[in-house]
Write a structure and sequence with these properties.
Layout lengths: L2 H5 L4 H11 L1 E7 L2 E8 L4 E5 L13 H5 L3 E5 L15 H15 L6 E6 L1 H12 L4 E7 L21 H16 L8 H10 L8 H4 L14 E7 L8 H9 L7 E4 L6 H4 L1 H14 L1
Parallel strand pairs: 3-4, 3-5, 5-6, 6-7, 7-8
Antiparallel strand pairs: 1-2, 2-4
Helix pairs in contact: 4-5, 6-7
Length: 283
């Protein structure tokens, strides 16, 4: 699938159904149920981890480009999407579920590259800390937990809203948090927000704020690089984010994608894919 598929008259449901049809789907133990994994492509494995109240579909505009040269493993984090809640709501339990799943599914190819978006980046950092045998390197994308000032975010309540009023509020929330340009709020983005948000049962706030990633970042021995959207509202001022991370990883590469908000890989997929594939190819 390429960008023309997204631009044509395919509904969000058709787009997601096509990805589901082409995916290999796996389940591994998680809490009282299972964690759900999907895989596309072939080549060296790459684990991609979505953000808070998200699912594998946060990466829908990137999977095919990455899967041309990689086996892309996309999870629904414990307590999100199709996955069960973890045994405890802490990163040790979340890391254990992911690490055990990787050993069962990827096995001899460990350790592997891991890219984490937003809350998923914090989860990826803790995965490398708690399960160091499974992670080769990290690419952090618009992550929180760095102890930096957050941007001004005002989200509208959806409860009680229906029809066009609800749609307008969803659009405003996407622009207030996830996306920068109004044209980026397309039918697929609205569909993903409406579908994924209510299935996010894990409360990410205490797992991120204010500086939970900083608790482990200086203790990681794997390579760490980062990608940021120029207009990331939750974690603004990319230069500040870079400076904080360079204190413990001075040789990191930090790339800013122009014209993108927080959900950088959705809003500017072609630019993001180029940068991520270049990083993966050089280190």
């Amino acid at each position: 699938m390429n960008e023309t598929f997204f631009a044509n008259d395919h509904s969000p449901a058709e787009i997601l159904a096509d990805f589901e049809r082409r995916a290999q789907r796996f389940e591994t133990p998680c809490g009282d149920g299972a964690m759900v994994w999907r895989a596309w492509g072939s080549g060296p494995p790459l684990l991609v981890i979505h953000g808070a109240h998200g699912a594998w579909s946060h990466w829908v505009r990137n999977i095919d480009a990455l899967a041309a040269s990689r086996t892309v493993w996309a999870i629904d984090l414990p307590g999100n999407g199709d996955s069960a809640m973890p045994t405890r709501e802490d990163f040790a339990a979340i890391s254990e579920a992911i690490g055990d799943g990787l050993r069962a599914l990827v096995g001899p190819e460990l350790p592997i590259d891991v890219a984490g978006f937003s809350f998923g980046g914090v989860a990826a950092g803790y995965l490398a800390f708690h399960q160091p045998d499974v992670v080769r390197r990290l690419i952090l994308i618009g992550t929180g937990g760095l102890g930096t000032p957050g941007g001004a975010i005002q989200l509208q309540r959806l409860r009680g809203l229906e029809g066009e009023e609800r749609r307008a509020a969803q659009r405003a929330n996407l622009l207030g948090l996830m996306l920068h340009h109004p044209d980026s709020v397309d039918e697929l983005a609205l569909h993903l927000q409406a579908a994924n948000g209510p299935r996010g049962r894990l409360n990410p706030r205490s797992l991120v704020l204010p500086d939970r990633l900083l608790e482990v970042l200086p203790r990681l021995t794997v390579r760490v690089d980062a990608i940021w959207g120029e207009h990331d509202r939750p974690h603004p001022d990319p230069a500040l984010q870079e400076a904080v991370m360079r204190r413990s990883h001075p040789d990191m590469e930090f790339h800013v994608i122009p014209g993108a908000g927080h959900w950088v890989m959705y809003e500017r997929p072609q630019a993001f894919n180029r940068v991520l594939l270049d990083l993966l190819g050089r280190h």
